[in-house]
Amino acid sequence: MDGPPLGRMTPYGLEHVGVLALLALASVALVLVVRRSESATVDRWLRRAGWVLLANSLLWLLWGLMPWAWNLEESLPLHYSDALRIIVPIAMITQAHWAIVISWFWGLTLNLQSVLTPDVNYFVWVPLEFAQYWIAHGMGVVVPVVLVWGLGYRPTWRGYGLAYAATVAWAVIAFTGNALTGANYGYLNRAPAGPSILDLLGPWPQYLLVEAVLIAVVWALMTLPFALGDARRGAPLSGRGALVRRPVQASSSTSASRSGPWEVVTTRR
């Protein structure tokens, strides 16, 4: 269905502002709950929620390929948010370190642009499309905050490098898709129609280079405080690949409560 949209989400309208407030409250509340809950309980509910979100993400991607919902500019899973809606549930289910670091860096920068300056057209059913947009982009904000500030995962410089390499790799995939279809996945071929942060970075293709440098700098700033703090505390690297640190290591079977993001942790993946 390549017809005109039914409408657009109004940036900073009542619904948008309400969702932003909800995401902020959910992030704070869930971090506090995780810190005060038993490790086994948190892990169990994180896995359950991850499976639910993964199933929802796969069904939504399938929905976009159906004839009644198909739109060349939107339906192919080539936006960064399309990848993130799969990676975030994987991080919740497995706590795999590669998924955690990508969720952290993508979720709180690339995804955050879509949260703060949404570029959304409605094509089939407005309530469903509104809900799915905010489920995907909302979990991209809330889950990384919980993983880092609740569970105590800390990105390392190797994790930074992996996330940046994944970003470049996905850009190549999206560029290829855009070249074959004439679409604009990842906003790699032109800026969004509505206002966005990209408007401040110059015209295409200049904004791509500026964005690449800006991402590298911002992500370094998102890594540096953890790297310095963990070096002072002597926090060990966690798992194969040294993509994250966890300041104290304990058995995964522990059932003590967390009173901070690093007091009960496990060595995993």
Automatic annotation (TrEMBL):
Transmembrane regions listed in the UniProt entry: 12-34, 49-71, 83-106, 131-151, 163-187, 207-228
Ranges where the record places region Disordered: 246-269
Keywords linked to the UniProt accession: Membrane, Transmembrane, Transmembrane helix
Residue spans of biased composition, Low complexity class: 250-259
Pfam families, per database record: TMEM164
Name of the protein in its database record: TIGR02206 family membrane protein
Native organism: Brachybacterium massiliense
Lineage of source species: Bacteria, Bacillati, Actinomycetota, Actinomycetes, Micrococcales
